[in-house]
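Incident review: delayed structure delivery

Summary: a single-chain prediction request sat in the queue longer than the usual turnaround. Root cause was a stuck worker, restarted by the on-call engineer. No data loss occurred. The affected request and its eventual output are reproduced below so the record is complete for anyone auditing the incident later.

Affected input:
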Amino acid sequence: MILLFSLGRPNIFAFDDLAIQRGMRMVYHHRKITRELFEKYRRRFSPYCSVASLYFWEMSHGVVPGLVDHAPKKKTMKKK
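Output delivered after worker restart:
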């Protein structure tokens, strides 16, 4: 986000950003975002990756009703 807001970089799309990955899972209905899949989308959005990042950030926070995260649910351990 520093590169995007402070330095004004127009083409930032970080794989390690969990909000971007969650937004992508919600929009494209993927269960997991691999590095190869991420690179495919990065090439598609280039040179406007920063704009896509902002949209995925908003999607990850639930601004669109009905969008859900398609990541597999983690199993919780039951207390004895």
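Verification: The chain is about 50% helix and 0% strand.
Action items: add queue-age alerting; document worker restart procedure.
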